[in-house]
Each structure stands twice: as structure tokens, then as C-alpha cells.
Amino acid sequence: MPTYKGQSRRAFLQVLVGGAALGLASVSGFRVLAETSGGSSGGNSVDWAALSEQEWRRRLTDEEFKILRKAGTERAFSSPLNDETRKGTFICAGCALPLFSSETKFKSGTGWPSFYEPLPDAVETKLDFKLVIPRTEYHCRRCGGHQGHVFDDGPEPTGKRYCNNGLALDFVPDESA
Ligand SMILES: [Zn+2]
């Protein structure tokens, strides 16, 4: 009888292990989904450059999509981030890459959140010929999401004004603040 019990027990365990393996598979599947849905992890596992337009539409609100993926511009004075004065970090609303420190934010009076300097290696620029006078567009280095335009009439120490769409950013306040 011990033999029978042993076999039965082993079979039972095999079912358990099999079930556990299935469970793990679905849990890790869920983890992958959770990681790719943006979030605060930074999403390093996502190949941001490879995301299709359809995938971006799923991840973003309509307004965010128009700005980040279609280089749109939000209405002036429409973003609550204009009045954000806490210490913290402004991150890309597309992929959560940190783009600006609150230390470099200044009151520009333009109606868009404005900064005199991005974080190191955070944005890339290109010339934009949408208006008669070419402007310098800048976008998130990681996901390519359009952020705004940079002008030469900013304050010291850089003299630059990064004029950013508030919808293209999320704000993460410092925990110690
Ligand atoms: Zn991004």
C-alpha cells in the first residue's frame, strides 16, 4: 500500500507542478503585459521604436496621441503643469523617460510648461518646417514622442527656452518634498 500511496501522491504532485507551471506562465505573461503598459518601472523592456501607430493609440489618450505621435500642439494655458511648482521630475508621457528637472522650469508666460535645459541625453532635436520660419522641434530620445520646440530667448544659464506640451509630460514629485 505504501507504494500505491507513493504513486498516487506522485501523480498528484505532477498535476500540482503542472498546474503551477501553467500558473507561472500566465503570471509571467501578465508581468510582460504590465511592463509594456508604461507605468513607473521605466519600461526598459519595451522596444519603443518598434511600436506601431495602433499600439501607440492604445497606450495614449487621443490628445496625447495627437501631440506625441503627430507633433500636435495643445491649447495655450490648458495644461495644469503650467502651474506645477513642486520639486520633482517631468517624464515623457509616452515612455516615462525622465526629460526635465523642476530645477530648470521657469515662468515663461507663454501658456506652456517651459524649461531652460533638458536632462542629459533626454531629448533629440530636428528642424520643423511646418511654419514659414523653421523651428527646432525636440522629442523624447527613447520613444521619439514629440514634446515641443526650443527657442533662443530663454533665461540664463543656457538662454534656451524648451516650450513643452504639458500633455506630453507626466510629473513625478520628489518623495522628500
Ligand atoms: Zn518617450
TrEMBL record:
Give one GO molecular function term: peptide-methionine (R)-S-oxide reductase activity
Query: What sort of enzyme, by top EC class, is this?
Result: oxidoreductase
List the Pfam families.
SelR
Q: Which domain of life is it from?
A: Bacteria
**Residue ranges of the MsrB domain?**
53-174
Q: Which GO terms describe its cellular component?
A: cytoplasm
Q: Known InterPro entries for this protein?
A: Met_Sox_Rdtase_MsrB, Met_Sox_Rdtase_MsrB_dom, Mss4-like_sf, TAT_signal
GO BP terms: namely: protein repair; response to oxidative stress
- Which keywords accompany this UniProt record? Oxidoreductase
Gene3D superfamilies per UniProt: Peptide methionine sulfoxide reductase
Q: Which reaction does it catalyse?
A: L-methionyl-[protein] + [thioredoxin]-disulfide + H2O = L-methionyl-(R)-S-oxide-[protein] + [thioredoxin]-dithiol
- List its EC numbers: 1.8.4.12
Q: What is this protein's name?
A: peptide-methionine (R)-S-oxide reductase
User: Which organism's genome codes for this protein?
Assistant: Saccharospirillum salsuginis
